[in-house]
Amino acid sequence: MKAVSIREHGGPEVLEWIEVEDPTPAPGEVVVDVVAGALNRADVMQRWGLYPLQPGWSPYPGLEVSGRIGAVGEGVTDWKVGDGVCALLTGGGYAQKVAVPAGQLLPVPKGTGLAEAAGLPEVTATVWSNLVMTAGLKAGETLLVHGGAGGVGTMAIQIAKALGARVVTTVGGPEKAAQARELGADVAIDYRTEDFAEYGPYDAILDVVGGDYLERNVRSLAVDGRLVVIGLQKGLEGRLDLAEIVFKRASVHGTTLRARTKEYKAEVVAAVRENVWPMIEDGTVKLLVERTVPMSDAAEGHRLLEAGGHLGKILLVNDGSA
Question: What is the per-residue pLDDT across 12-21, written as a single tens digit (0 to 9) for each?
Fold first, then answer.
């Protein structure tokens, strides 16, 4: 089979479409014949060398795919060869085939195309695990979502609204602000001209930005507020006022989904299937796809992602699979 390899750390040009060994399913795994994958910021960080791989992780990028099961490992009883699925991965999705623990598989939601479904597992699992399982977001609370035009942001806006929250989001420019409001955001803030702290306080904040947003995030929290940091686009360091945390009884969480155990991921996937899949199937929540590009031209996908002008997901489609 072929997969996208990272030749060396650097720009998109270091991504190469090369021949590699076919995966085989270990006990409890299946092999998915990949129809499509989707891009995530973690893939870019891995390419730059800012996301160190842990033992056992695939060297190939890609955290979510869709396709059909091509082989089933020992002990797998809920899935069979030929089933159409999408899957949450630890890596390896930029390929024609990938081995996946069976607990990280999801059926393709009704009304969603097989290729399109590649853009669902990572964002839905990220949003549900952080907003509900970590932050404990409740109906009637106010949520601030940073990066409301990205894959995670567009999904977070919709899921939070479906849960009954008031949603405020930051975006870059009036066009994206209008699009965020169409998705359900109650307030869309242009971060280039407005200070999101002025629109608080917030019961929960989902932050994909990091860096110097930390101080303003904490200052913007309500009493008993929760900040969940899941991205580091603006850097690794920020100022933390401990008095703000103590007197507000606030909490700050830093999380990544990729490094979690397969047991935890299976728990998240099960929760997503139970709670989010019905929202997708009845149209309450929609996946936004900005562009599809060939898997063999993943470098172009990375250029589009880093340019930052997209709304929603960018998909990588294997030849003949569109």
Answer: 999 999 999 9
254/263 Cα distance (integer angstroms) = 20
Segment holding 36, helix H or strand E: strand 29-38
Note whether 95 and 21 are within 8 A (CB).
Answer: no
- Spatial neighbors of 111 by CB under 8 A, at least 6 apart, are 280, 281, 283
Under CATH, which architecture does the 2-120+287-317 domain have?
Alpha-Beta Complex (3.90)
CA distances 121 to 98, 176, 198, 208, 287, Å, are: 15, 24, 34, 18, 11
Please tell me the pTM assigned to this model: 0.93
Instruction: Count the residues in the chain.
Output: 322
Q: Which CATH number fits domain 124-254: 3.40.50.720, 3.30.565.10, 3.30.70.270, 3.30.230.10?
A: 3.40.50.720
298-312 pLDDT, tens digit per residue, is 999 999 999 877 788
H-type helices in 221-312, by residue range? 242-248, 262-275, 277-281, 298-307
